Amino acid sequence: MAYRGRGRGRGGYGGGGGFGFAKQEPFKLFPEIELPAHKNIPIEKNLILWNSRLLNYWKSSPYFLEESVEKNSQSVDIERYSDWNKPKVSSNRGSINQFLQLHSNNFPAELVKDSREQRNPKRVRWNADRGLRKLDLFEKLEQKFEGQEDKDEKEKKEGEDEDEDGDEAAGEAEEEFSDDGDYNQNIDFDDDEDDFNMDDGNDDEATY
Amino acid sequence: MLTEYGTKHAVHVITNHFGDLVAKVCECLLRKGPLTRQNVKRYTELSDEQVKNALLVLIQQNCVQAFTTEQPDGFADGPKANTQYVVLFDNILHRVRFAKFLTILSQEFDQQCVELVQGLLEHGRLTLKQMFDRAKSSEKEGNLVDLDSLRETLVKLVTAHYVERCPASEPLLMPISEEEGPARKKGSKSAKKIGEPETIEQQVVEAALPMEAMRFSVVTNVESDVGEKEKNSNNVTPGEKRKHDVLELDECGVADEQSVVYRANFEGFIRRLRHKGCIDHVRAHLDDGAANVLSAMLQATSSAEKKVKTKNSVPLSLSSIYEEVIKSEAGRNMTLDHVRASLVQLGELSFVDASSDSYSIDFEKIIEIAQNEEVESVVSKRYGRDAYRIFRLLSKSGRLLETDKISDTTFVEKKDAPKILYKLWKDGYLLMEKLVVTGARQSQFLLWKVNRQILWKHVLDEMFHAALNLSLRVSYELDREKELLNLPADKRTGPLQDRYNRIRKVRILLESSQMKLDDAILLFHDF
What we know:
The complex is a heterodimer of chains A (208) and B (527).
Chain A: H1 45-59, H2 71-74, H3 109-112, H4 130-133, H5 136-156, H6 161-180, H7 194-200
Chain B: H1 4-18, H2 20-32, E1 35-36, H3 37-44, H4 48-60, E2 64-71, E3 80-87, H5 89-94, H6 98-108, H7 111-123, E4 126-127, H8 128-137, H9 147-159, E5 163-165, E6 172-173, H10 180-191, H11 200-208, H12 212-215, H13 222-232, H14 246-259, E7 261-264, H15 266-285, H16 288-301, E8 316-317, H17 318-327, H18 336-348, E9 352-355, E10 358-361, H19 363-383, H20 385-397, E11 401-402, H21 403-410, H22 416-426, E12 431-438, E13 442-449, H23 452-480, H24 482-486, H25 495-526
Parallel strand pairs in B: 2-6
Antiparallel strand pairs in B: 1-3, 2-3, 4-7, 5-7, 8-10, 9-10, 11-13, 12-13
């Protein structure tokens, strides 16, 4: 039996025909290994935040090409009544042509001659499409909730001033960006260090 | 040379950013080298339209460069130019570090600069007009965007070499003739340390670069356009008449704003990261004073650096170094004696070359020592203290040593040494040679050596492997909790909240690890 998927060579493969020479091991996607102490890793929240924003933009941008179903194959099936209620396959992403400068200074001639350039600059969508981001409304609720959480935690916290300032600044920066409604934040970064401390049971190590 | 895990890592990055379709085309180009569009279609088995769109995205995002070569056509029709596409592996690697680039910018420039470059990183390439439209679309009340201030911001960034004009779309690459081949190899021994001929990727990138003066120029107003227009018209086929009417310039200026495309200059950011890496390394080895001195020297000489992997900085005299040191906040209180003492310390470690009253930083040395420390640390953590001592001995001696000699010099037990050596050799850290001596009796000796070039490649491949593992794990964990992440906050109660906190911590930890690992990859690949 052949195991496919994200194994990339890890895990055991069944011996050819099961002669008994090779020991058949169960397939493990992420085998247990000895990991280094996680406390030694410097946490770079700023970098993660930037990275997250960029990733969220690309995933919902026209540059993320989906392997869409060819229109020809759809016409082979008989159109059924039940199909009317099914959501349409068409994507909500904009076309890449709205951003690409399709002239031969910028792209090779053979790619330019087949494409039509979108002329209307007003139609260009700079902010990621709402439908694709899914969390728009919930994002705002999250940010509200986060704001409340922040206030509660600050009352409980024995302040280390530098950290608080850092947190506030980061928190403010987040609020600022979230007001734009530009970026999809799946994980709320309430930069509240207490989350770590509370779960880890009050270590003696310095907090950041 | 691309290693297996380097390729896999790059493909995974592209998959995350642009989807499977683009990644398929990218993987095809990575594994097969430069290809024409038809060949890409043949190997990937995708449709014409899909290949075209994928190539457009990859070029737009600066991951692929097109070029043409002249091929002598067998049918006496004359030479035919065909367009091929080559993948820019380095630029794909840079994609995971965009956050670091933006952090550098936020420390040196204002918010508008950061947002402009963020737009360039998101879209790959933009014209000034597009930058303006983008800024306007996320305009806030009380902070209105105007074209002039945006243009000024762009000029600031271009002058600092953080933004550049995009390269030529399909430069002509002259094939290296056979007669030139051996001659190049002879010349390359003196020219380059390693003596490797340039890869096609490097040749294409060089051929595509606009002239230095044009690369970092912005079309501003009519008067200053004169210089630029003359250079622009060099691209026009020679022999055409050039008219330089003022009125025409004016129209061209506006047209240029809509057609000249800019992109982030990755080299500028990497150079900055390289400097920071050197400063941090010096700070760890010596002290803040030495770090300040080094930082000041870099400040004064960085504009003179021609390429990223510069070996030495431009020499500076003690007085000019001192002037620069006291300009900075950190170095304000340093005395001349203190500066001189730091320079002596730096000189002792060979970080700085001192000759006839001028000092120049030896980047190669600093980076070499940092790389050695990294590898030694890996060996020590993975194989233990004895192995670390053995490895260090072999690495410093740089030649073949025999097993017994090794165990004597490093005070390792005679029976343990062969086991450790064998383990290191099996994992690719050492080279082994067998020596058979026939004398009174035949005896066999095993000789061991560290080959730095081979080992560095191996270490880098292991790092790509680790980076790939981390990304796969992050994707897996986030995918598993996809539904939980899509839940609104108020629905997350009890055990769901615990799971949510867990996934949040996991993500932060894994991504921080990725960033730290990327520092090591920078050290071995880009610095």
